[in-house]
Amino acid sequence: MLTFFAILLLLATLMVFRVPIAFAMGIAGTAGLAAQLGMRPALAVLERTFFDTSASFILVAIPLFILMAELLTAGDVTRRAIIACQRWIGHVKGGLAIATVAASVILAALVGSSTASTAAMAASAFPEMRAHRYSDRLAAAVVSVGGTLAVVVPPSIVLVVYGVLTETSIGKLFIAGIVPGFLTAAGLALVIKIIAQTTDQAPKGDPFELKGALRQSVHVIPMVVLLLAVIGAIYGGLASPSEAAALGVMGSLIIVMLQRTLSFVQFGTSISRAIRATVMIVAIVACSAIFSNYLAFTRITHGMLEFVATTEMPRELIMAIIILVLLVMGMFMDQLAILSLAMPLAFPTAMAMGYDPVWFGIVVTKTVEIGLLTPPLGLNAYVAAAQTRVPLGTIFRGILPFLGMEIVVLVLLLSFPQITLFLPELMMSR
């Protein structure tokens, strides 16, 4: 047990000194295996684990979905989606902010990364809201919370990583994330409407023009068709997530080529950015598996399962403790770090209590999403502050009412699992 605490101290020390989470977990896991088994067996486990994890076929979905997002973003498709949403509902009081949330849903389905979505919205939607005399507090907060939708709305990279770490069907996770994603967006829109009606932070936008709205929507239709095709292929059982991701890359490349919005240089940059992001994620997944193997050899996971089996605590209380721990972790870590650290213990515990792995994945993802908004880290708030030059304290104050709605949605998902599970169950019954 002393060795275990020493390894945890090593991991914490590496993280304090800002060692990337993948390397921190890999070093700590390797040191733990060496202390537990000896150096030669530890290296053998390290070699097998790293190869087996990184060679997993399902990981192919990660670079493909990232590349799809990079191509559409570089091809100016995402900016056009934002403009189209603003043209349709920007004329009502608070409409520009609601349009930003609607555009964030589309962007979430394109980008799959919350920080990238926040940065894109900050660059395009925030100046528009500021030009129409929206308060900086509300405009920057909307940009921050809108970006978190990319964590839940498929094809979410966080859901892919959760599926790989826990061996849960990524196709079912994608389908399960649809309703919670739209429920979250509806809740955010409701908060905006209340703020617009009770304060002067969100005035009306430009008058509605049907011709202009239709003209802008023409550019978005191919993108929406592509997204429906990708998700529909998974839902209908016509393609695996990796195959659907390949379909998405091909479709996005055709769209930007037909619209002539992607240069050869931008194409190369998109591939380069996708490769860098993929290497980071695969390294996290592989090093997480090394640390998980160390936990397995220490029998810590087995001890947790025995505790759950013998304790008289209600399973709802144990789940509440897990959620609380994840929320606290979200105040200091990014979403992939949380998954890689917490799932080796939290997932077996939840399964031992009889919870559905797909439902648990959406709940965990929603909890991680909330962590992107909570101080002191609040990664999305930092991204928005860097892009908009709005003080960080102002953004966090603006986020507070949205944070309350996020908690309400999380409680609904915990209380009514069918919100999450009814679409995957329909998928299975087909």
UniProtKB/TrEMBL annotation:
It is a multi-pass membrane protein. Keywords: Cell inner membrane, Cell membrane, Membrane, Transmembrane, Transmembrane helix, Transport. Its main location: membrane. PANTHER family: C4-DICARBOXYLATE TRAP TRANSPORTER LARGE PERMEASE PROTEIN DCTM, SIALIC ACID TRAP TRANSPORTER PERMEASE PROTEIN SIAT-RELATED. Belongs to the TRAP transporter large permease family. Part of the tripartite ATP-independent periplasmic (TRAP) transport system. This is TRAP transporter large permease protein. It comes from Salipiger bermudensis (strain DSM 26914 / JCM 13377 / KCTC 12554 / HTCC2601).
